[in-house]
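Sanity check

After download, print the first record. It should look like this:
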Amino acid sequence: MKEFFTLLRGGNKSSFIAAIVNLILGCLKGGAFFFTGNVALFAEMMHSLGDAANQFFVFIGSALSKKSPTKRFPTGFGRIVNLVCLGAVLIVGILSYETIKEGIHHIMHPTSAEGFWISIGVLAIGVILEGTVLLKAAQEIAHEVGFDHAGVKTIPLAITNINRAKPATKLVFMEDFVATFGGVLAIIAIVIAKLTGFHAAEGIASVAIGLMMFYVVGRVFLDNARGVIGETDEEMLDHIAYLVLDDPNVVDIERLEVVKEGEFLHVELVVEVDPSLSLAYLDDVREYLTETLLCQKGVSRVAIMFDEDDGEAEWQHRKARPLLK
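Expected structure tokens:
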């Protein structure tokens, strides 16, 4: 139990903060929906509660993924976060369906909702809080890709580099991006219904929010399914190849694998060297390369083997290049 709480301290902070914020917002929106009957608030309530549940599970998964390897599981527990994210999106998928179904019902049978200012006030609070969490997640993505001080460019930078973010941070950013935009959409729909009497606008907003939630489900599911199977990080593979070939003792790379293990990267490398080099010298080369690669962002395990140079360029078809920000 002590180890479990120690691991929790290393969990993804964005997902934990987002879970607390969304739980509070879900309760606020639920109370407002109870008093007003506004279907746009119902959609936002379902969205917030779904986000709170899966972001909490993602926080737990990201913490457990940092557990050290054991004899039974020698490659570690990195992919736990991918498995948890797969389970988390199922919750969002179910709530997305309910949101769309309720929205369609309201479009077909529009009704007038009460409590205009209550609805607007609660949704405005939601947009502000969700936007704050969104900015926090964007800052974490910027930090993960090497931009610690992005300033006003933080959110555009996060959108551009989202595929390089850790699974948990990516999920939080995508969900809160949709939540923030969905809150704005719900406010617009309520204002339109109030000013024009077109009450079906709230149902349309509910369907739109549900469809955005489904997009997050599909995107996160595919990303984490690849992570569970074991996906190559092509960008880091080229970067590591560049670093390895830069060593004067390495003639060529026979095999290089850089596989994502949750938030970490595992590197397996077979390099070709001059057969006249002694084992003691090659052991020093291995130690130097291992230390160099472990210093690269995200790399947690390195396995290096040597083979004699066969005179053929095995890596000539690859683009070995340094990682650019």
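If your output differs, re-run the checksum step. Summary of this record's structure: The chain is about 65% helix and 10% strand.
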